[in-house]
Design goal:
Length: 255
């Protein structure tokens, strides 16, 4: 399975599986970064945001509630069909490696490890370039990724997650395959769905290739694509990245 087909079937269960994800806390964290660093770089709080990989719209809608105008780009048609919309948030289907909207924004966001799904250097540089294309002078590119020291220290393992709503019970098995020379982990997801009313079962699998990054690697990616790094920190906590921080957040400024 190629990355183009990631989330095609998985999207059906996305909101159920991540119902325990604290989107409110994440949006508060991102909003604080925007306020802090946009004030430092362009002199006023920015309001026009572009979100790469907007998924089902949860981050975008919550940011819109805070007064931001958010445009989401999402490759999966299935995700777009499920996406929430609200005043201040719109989304459209597109490839973040290729998108050209002909507009400028105060910040580009890419959350929930969307950048880690760009496993090739070609795709990584393309996304960084598309971010730069869409930013005002001094604009910010904010994203989170899997952090290599934590991946190596904690090691990936088989995990099982169970969630349910009023219609279905979902069991998800995540089985990782490690490619150490590529800084990549392919996660094979097997989903078992039980329909509560009929008792019928549905099963499918998807493979999600994920790349993890070191700080020197990220710094080089920033510099060669026209950015400087303002901060690198553990996602949500703001702590210094370490072996306990699986996800790190970067704030880059367009030079």
């Amino acid at each position: 399975m190629t990355t183009e087909t990631v989330f095609n079937a998985y999207s059906r269960y996305y909101d159920i599986l991540y119902r325990d994800k604290d989107y409110v806390a994440e949006v508060e964290y991102i909003s604080n970064l925007l306020t802090r660093y946009i004030l430092k770089t362009i002199g006023e709080a920015g309001s026009e945001l572009l979100e790469f990989g907007s998924g089902t719209g949860k981050h975008g809608c919550l940011l819109a509630e805070k007064g931001y105008m958010v445009t989401g780009i999402e490759r999966s048609a299935e995700m777009i069909a499920m996406a929430q919309t609200s005043q201040g948030f719109t989304c459209q289907q597109g490839d973040i490696c290729k998108v050209q909207l002909g507009r400028k924004f105060d910040a580009v966001l890419s959350l929930f490890h969307v950048i880690s799904y760009q496993v090739s250097n070609k795709d990584l540089c393309a996304v960084f370039q598309r971010a730069a294309d869409h930013l005002n002078a001094g604009g910010l590119f904010i994203f989170d990724v899997w952090y290599s020291p934590a991946v190596y220290a904690q090691r990936t393992e088989v995990r099982v997650k169970r969630m349910a709503d009023s219609a279905v019970e979902i069991t998800r098995i995540a089985e990782p395959t490690i490619y150490p020379n590529e800084n990549r982990v392919d996660v094979k997801y097997t989903i078992f769905e039980r329909n509560i009313s009929t008792g019928a079962y549905l099963t499918f699998t998807e493979n999600h290739p994920m790349r993890h990054f070191s700080l020197p690697e990220l710094d080089l990616l920033a510099k060669v694509n026209g950015f400087e790094c303002l901060t690198t920190e553990a996602f949500l906590t703001g702590d210094e990245p370490g072996e306990d921080a699986w996800g790190v957040c970067l704030v880059l400024r367009k030079i």
